[in-house]
């Protein structure tokens, strides 16, 4: 029979022109691979090859029966791509994924160690081994590409837009060359170290705390980011569907053991004890999540690219430059524990969140020296939670809201090689909001869940003397998820459990440059499925529609990209671009 193709309706890859080099990085079969990653020597392209863009392609084949598995790509000790696998459902299945890793192009310039981690188990029932083919494509492209695959846009000579990734825009240096930069970072520092080469650099929160020293950066650094990979696993995979602890047992006698610690998760980042950023984890549904037929043959958005959360740390540059020891701490909160009005022991979170992080920094060769000072840290927290489960009538209602804001202001003083000085005020602001509504009836057989994580983050450069805004970059993210689950009555003696599910996801991302909405992405998914868990083999039906639209407008070129696909019961009905 033909190989069954499984696809993701994701961001289009840019055309960087012809490759200047390409090579195979890994061909490997992951059978009983739990705790045994593939470790190979990475050999950089020859020294006469110049490149500034790197794209990695991943082909995966799997047959038989197997769960979805998380996979990680590490280079030189840094995690650079996190992905997940398809479920074969008894058929030889194939998926293709690709990732622009140009931000990490520096790591690809030298010989080092490459690790691909895919923890898999083979049992008499779980027979699927994953065959992986990993390849690297290298390009040497000129600045000025837009997000969408088209001819390079004309750019204002005073500004340099290098937008190659919805979340990886470059600060436009409106009046100078200090803050302009290219996509590839000049420095990459992994924050998770491992003493054993075969052990991937991961922290499992809450089993272990995540605190690391801040690396020292060169004084010509103009931009620094935290790239933070976090994935809810096991008890935390469906965190957005969890209830407050007091309600976990209310429907246990009716076969529904509800997850606890509440339906809100926020990643908080601290430096030297000050909270500097808050971010919502992306609610990813893996290919076996909720109901496997929903995601066959079109996976849920983000399943092949579990994007890193990006936190702008440019306002913290004075800490990266000073002689003191400074640290950074990553914490994942359930929001409710941050409510000052609540009394009693904290609820915490479940096991576990799989976490790693890198500091990435950009430098400017025209700068001789930089100094600065942090002016102010400012943050606020608002939490409210309400739950109601009257006895005997089989109903539960719950509402949780959370809002975190953080702002850091600094002054940065740069001296160029030609003696010119620039003094700036740098302002980083971020906001993470979540709203969750859970309504359960029929003793848990009927469940409706609405989860709406929203975030904003911005970076502004202001004139040091007049406080006039010179340039701004703003992002907003909204990941709305609605899940409706109806469990059918058990048929006595059958051992089977059947349920119907409808899931809707609405993703909205906007990028603003100097007050103009330059990029807007909307992704809509709507899926319906019926699934039966049976001792004779699980089975079910599913259909899902996926619609992705990206629009660009001033100060970029006007352009639109749309992709619309429908999958029904394992078959792609249409996939139109």
Describe the structure using short key phrases:
577 residues, Jelly Rolls, five-stranded mixed beta sheet, 28 strands, 50% strand
Short description:
The chain has about 575 residues and is mainly beta. The chain has one helix spanning about 315-320, and strands at about 5, 20-30, 40, 55-60, 70-75, 80-85, 95-100, 110-120, 130-140, 185-190, 205, 210-215, 220-230, 265-270, 275-280, 310, 325-335, 355-365, 365-390, 395-415, 420-440, 445-465, 470-485, 495-515, 515-535, 540-550, 560-570, 570-575. The protein is globular.
The order of strands across the largest sheet is 19-20-21-22-23-24-25-26-27-28
Query: H/E order of the elements?
Result: EEEEEEEEEEEEEEEEHEEEEEEEEEEEE
Number of domains: 2
Q: What quaternary form is this?
A: single chain
The rounded distance between the terminal residues' Cα atoms is 28 Å
| pLDDT averaged residue by residue | 91
Unreliable segments of 5+ consecutive residues: 145-178
Structural class: mainly beta
How much helical structure, as a percent, in the residues? under 10%
InterPro entries: PNGase_A, PNGaseA_N
Protein name: Peptide N-acetyl-beta-D-glucosaminyl asparaginase amidase A N-terminal domain-containing protein
Organism: [Candida] arabinofermentans NRRL YB-2248
């Amino acid at each position: 029979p033909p190989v069954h193709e499984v696809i993701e309706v994701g961001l289009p890859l840019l055309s960087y022109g012809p490759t200047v080099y390409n090579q195979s990085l890994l061909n490997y079969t992951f059978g009983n691979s739990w705790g045994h990653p593939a470790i190979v020597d990475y050999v950089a392209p020859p020294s006469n090859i110049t490149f500034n863009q790197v794209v990695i392609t991943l082909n995966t084949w799997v047959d038989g029966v197997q769960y979805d598995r998380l996979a990680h790509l590490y280079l030189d000790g840094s995690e650079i791509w996190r992905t997940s696998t398809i479920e074969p459902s008894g058929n030889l299945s194939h998926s293709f994924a690709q990732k622009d890793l140009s931000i990490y192009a520096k790591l690809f310039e030298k010989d080092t160690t490459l690790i691909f981690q895919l923890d898999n188990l083979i049992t008499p029932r779980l027979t699927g081994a994953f065959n992986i083919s990993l390849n690297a494509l290298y390009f040497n492209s000129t600045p000025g590409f837009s997000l969408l695959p088209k001819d390079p846009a004309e750019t204002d000579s005073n500004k340099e837009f290098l937008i190659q990734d919805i979340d990886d825009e470059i600060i436009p240096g409106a009046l100078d060359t200090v803050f302009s930069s290219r996509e590839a970072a000049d420095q990459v520092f992994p924050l998770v170290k491992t003493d054993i080469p075969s052990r991937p650099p991961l922290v499992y929160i809450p089993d272990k705390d995540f605190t690391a020293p801040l690396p020292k950066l060169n004084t010509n650094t103009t931009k620094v980011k935290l790239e933070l990979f976090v994935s809810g696993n096991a008890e935390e995979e469906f965190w957005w569907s969890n209830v407050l602890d007091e309600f976990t047992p209310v429907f246990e006698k009716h076969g529904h053991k509800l997850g606890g610690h509440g339906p809100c998760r926020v990643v908080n980042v601290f430096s030297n004890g000050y909270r500097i950023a808050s971010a919502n984890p992306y609610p990813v549904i893996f290919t076996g999540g909720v109901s496997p037929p929903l995601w066959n043959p079109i996976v849920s958005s983000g399943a092949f690219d579990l994007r890193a959360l990006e936190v702008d740390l440019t306002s913290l540059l004075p800490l990266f430059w000073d002689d003191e020891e400074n640290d950074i701490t990553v914490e994942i909160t359930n929001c409710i524990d941050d409510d000052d009005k609540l009394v009693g022991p904290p609820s915490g979170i479940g096991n576990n969140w799989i976490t790693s992080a890198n500091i990435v920094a950009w430098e400017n060769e025209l700068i001789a020296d930089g100094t600065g000072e942090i002016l102010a840290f400012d943050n606020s927290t608002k939490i409210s939670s309400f739950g109601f489960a009257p006895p005997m009538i089989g109903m539960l209602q719950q509402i949780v809201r959370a809002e975190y804001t953080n702002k850091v202001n600094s002054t940065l003083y740069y001296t160029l090689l030609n003696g010119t000085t620039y003094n700036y005020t740098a302002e980083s602001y971020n906001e993470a909001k979540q709203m969750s509504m859970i309504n359960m009836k029929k003793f848990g057989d009927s469940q409706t869940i609405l989860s709406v994580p929203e975030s904003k983050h911005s970076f502004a450069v202001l004139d040091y003397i007049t406080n006039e805004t010179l340039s701004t970059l703003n992002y907003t993210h909204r990941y709305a998820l609605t899940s409706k689950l109806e469990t059918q009555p058990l048929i006595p003696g059958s051992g089977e459990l059947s349920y119907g599910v409808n899931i809707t996801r609405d993703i909205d991302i906007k990028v603003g440059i100097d007050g103009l909405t330059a990029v807007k992405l909307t992704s809509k998914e709507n899926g319906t499925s019926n699934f039966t868990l049976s001792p004779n083999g699980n089975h079910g039906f599913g259909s899902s529609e996926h619609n992705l639209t990206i629009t660009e407008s001033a100060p970029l070129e006007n352009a639109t990209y749309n992709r619309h696909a429908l999958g029904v019961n394992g078959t792609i009905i249409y996939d139109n671009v």
